[in-house]
Design brief:
It is a single chain. Helix 13 crosses helix 14 and helix 19 packs parallel to helix 23. The protein is an alpha/beta fold. It contains 23 helices and 13 strands.
Length: 723
């Protein structure tokens, strides 16, 4: 039977960048690894070994050339690589630090579609083989060497057809190293497993069937270790490697490499067998041929989403949360705390505002006495008029001041106008009220002139005015002062009119506001903003946590290793959603409980509609986080992109200010954001009781779903492009 190559690479070129920044990593590289052979790949750092292995396992594509893995191209439905047919141990440990040793092996077993019984058997075997510590010990607490052994066990757990090991024996003592090599030889002998191994220990590759020496993106020497030693007349592979790297006899090296490769190919074509060995020779000088002595267990490796992998990823995510229970509690409580903090701190009426009082009508600016009687005096029943008693209109300035809510405005009296102005200029007060010396008399004249249709000169009118100066650098405080002073004058006018037995309606503005159709007249800025704050917090908590989770896994190498096991972006996203949706549900519940039952926000609509839209916005934020993590290489870049997303959404989504206050062109941009219509719809549900039958509500649901799907599609596309 004709032997075939497990790996066949022809004229491989791989470069990064363009133009002047173009970096050529692989240069016309050719490589063949027979099925069931152990191939030792040697080369200095930066020679392209990792890039070559990445192309082999389907995580990177060649710029030019061809790669055949197990008789088909990587990343094809026929090859099913990435997938369970390949086992991969990267140079970094690439493990989930929160899992225990046993949980780690179970995780990779499930990713590779093994059943639970097989996983248990393999776990016990590998723990014994690799001399691993207590299986319940968490990976984060292991030494560097122990982590590498766990990483090797994760690559061996499912007995793959092709095994790619990058520096598997670093940090391993010589005795254990020999044990590892013995097991690799057994896999090659009994299961016809093809193994590609890179190592710093050059001499240990003498146990490999074929050695390839790589430099500057090329395989310079490839052949059986003994033949290479004989061709170069050297006693050790170190000496051969040194000679090749120094560039001695480059032409002869190339020719010998070609002859050696031709020998292997011709041997395979003539059905000659490559012999296995444990220490460079067959046992008792006899050869053992490439053939499987133990039947390989087959598993369903068809392409497409596998719920076993989703289950493995979901379990891993829940274990990570449990091992970081403090962080999870923080995640659960911080949204409700943020909403509570907003409700307590924002939107309430400013109080205890210091205000200067300059009352020239009273010598010492004090209001020990003022009249509350009718300013016109007592009504004469016989004549039908008023007696205009002067004492009834004494100290009207004090009468006005008595109607000001002193929990809002706190008086500070000053004897002169200049002193009052200076107190505002120096920040001691928010403004001042100035009453001129003859205010009460002139106010009476003004009142009487209004009744008798008489006129007053400008000086008299000015003396009857209440003069106010404000510090308007803080608009909200300034508006609060204006509203309180206007309301105080309204109450003062009604008091003056009522004291004369005249209907107060005659003193009011002729605008009659009936009960509102929706909402309440006492509704505050907080009431307006809280629905938007709920969505904002939910969205960006999901965005930030998802972004960091995937970037951390990528930087640790775990995300790459998952992809090699055949995990698809869809499976990754689904597992993350299943884990995070439980956290999000608790977050939303706590926020709504506080807002509705503690803050007592008026809630006229369906709680199911409110919770559903909020949850959908959380999923949208999660999808946005997946896209950001797919783009970002570092946590810093991810944070910058999240912040760059946060502030436009916060300012343009109508959370703190009505969209109608924006310029028309900006309004058109704002309505395209994922939270704008959702924020508007949530207000309609809270305050108007609207449901899904209203276009404003179901439009928000539809657009939230559309944004979520758009983010997910972009994420899958970016993952594929970046691969």
């Amino acid at each position: 039977m004709e032997s075939k190559s497990a790996i066949a690479i022809q004229n491989a070129h791989k470069h990064y960048g363009r133009g002047d920044k173009k970096l050529l990593v692989l240069k016309d590289l050719c490589m063949k690894v027979p099925k069931g052979a152990i191939y030792g790949l040697l080369g200095p750092s930066g020679c392209g070994k990792t890039t070559l292995l990445s192309c082999v396992i389907g995580q990177s594509k060649l710029s030019h050339g061809t790669v055949q893995i197990l008789d088909s191209q990587p990343d094809s439905s026929i090859a099913r690589i990435p997938g369970p047919r390949v086992g991969y141990m990267p140079q970094e440990t690439a493990l989930c630090q929160e899992l225990s040793i046993m949980e780690t092996l179970q995780y990779f077993g499930r990713l590779n579609l093994m059943n639970e019984a097989s996983i248990r058997i393999r776990c016990l075997f590998l723990i014994s083989l690799l001399d691993l510590p207590n299986p319940k010990k968490v990976v984060a607490n292991l030494s560097g060497g122990q982590k590498r052994r766990v990483s090797l066990a994760a690559a061996l757990i499912h007995e793959p057809e092709l095994l790619i090991l990058d520096e598997p024996t670093v940090g391993v003592d010589p005795l254990l190293r020999e044990c590892i090599w013995k097991h690799l030889l057994e896999l090659s002998n009994e299961c016809q497993t093809t193994i590609v191994i890179t190592t710093h220990f050059i001499e240990e590759t003498r146990q490999a069937h074929i050695v390839g020496m790589m430099r500057l993106g090329k395989i310079l020497v490839e052949g059986k270790p003994n033949e290479i030693l004989e061709q170069y007349s050297k006693a050790s592979l170190d000496e051969v490697f040194l000679q090749v790297c120094m560039g001695q006899d480059d032409l002869d090296s190339t020719e010998r490499s070609n002859r050696s490769r031709a020998t292997i190919e011709n041997g395979l074509n003539r059905q000659e067998q490559v012999y296995l060995k444990e220490n460079g020779q067959g046992p008792n000088g006899q050869s053992t041929a490439f053939q499987s002595k133990r039947p390989r267990k087959t598993r369903d490796c068809q392409s497409g989403m596998k719920f076993k992998r989703v289950k493995a990823l979901t379990i891993k995510n829940f274990i990570k949360m449990w091992r970081n229970i403090g962080s999870v509690i923080f995640q659960l409580l911080i949204p409700a705390f943020q909403v509570a903090l907003f409700c307590v701190a924002i939107g309430n009426t400013p109080r205890n505002l210091d205000f200067a009082i300059v009352n020239q009508e009273m010598p010492d600016s004090t209001c020990d006495f003022y009249s509350t009687a009718c300013v016109l005096g007592e009504r004469a029943e016989f004549i039908g008029g008023y007696n205009f008693q002067a004492q009834n209109r004494a100290n009207l300035s004090c009468r006005f001041l008595s109607h000001i809510d002193q929990s809002v405005i706190r008086f500070k009296t000053f004897e002169s106008l200049d002193a009052g102005v200076e107190s505002t200029q120096t920040g001691g007060t928010w403004g001042l009220i100035h009453f001129k010396e003859h205010f009460s008399e002139r106010f009476f004249d003004r009142f009487l002139a209004l009744i008798e249709s008489q006129d007053l000169n400008a000086s008299q009118v000015a003396e009857s005015d209440i003069h106010i100066k404000l510090d308007m650098t803080n608009q909200q405080v300034g508006i609060t002062l204006q509203m309180e002073l206007v309301e105080a004058f309204k109450r003062f006018s009604e008091d003056v009119v009522a004291s004369c037995n005249i209907s107060t309606r005659l003193a009011s503005i002729p605008l009659s506001f009936s009960d509102p159709i929706y909402g309440e007249y006492k509704q505050t800025l907080t009431d307006f903003a809280v629905p938007g704050i709920i969505l904002l917090v939910t969205y960006f908590m999901a965005l930030g946590l998802t972004t960091l989770a995937f970037i951390v896994e990528r930087n640790e190498g775990l995300l790459h290793r998952n992809m090699v096991a055949g995990v698809t972006p869809t499976e990754l996203m689904l597992a993350h959603v299943l884990a995070q949706i439980s956290v999000m549900t608790v977050q939303i519940t706590l926020m709504l409980v506080y807002v509705i039952f503690v803050y007592q926000l008026p809630t006229a609509g369906s709680l199911a509609c409110i919770a559903g839209l909020t949850l959908l916005q959380g999923l949208c934020g999660m999808a946005n986080g997946l896209m950001v993590s797919a783009i970002s290489n570092t946590e810093e870049m991810g944070i910058y992109l999240c912040l760059g997303t946060f502030f436009p959404n916060m300012t343009l989504s109508g959370i703190f200010w009505p969209l109608e206050g924006m310029p028309t062109w900006l309004h058109q941009i704002a309505i395209t954001l994922p939270q704008t219509y959702a924020c508007e719809a949530l207000r309609h549900v809270f305050f108007k009781g609207w449901g899904m039958e209203w276009v404003q509500v179901y439009r928000a649901f539809a657009l939230s779903i559309a944004w979520t799907l758009a983010f997910l599609i972009l994420t899958v596309f970016i993952f594929k492009v970046r691969r």
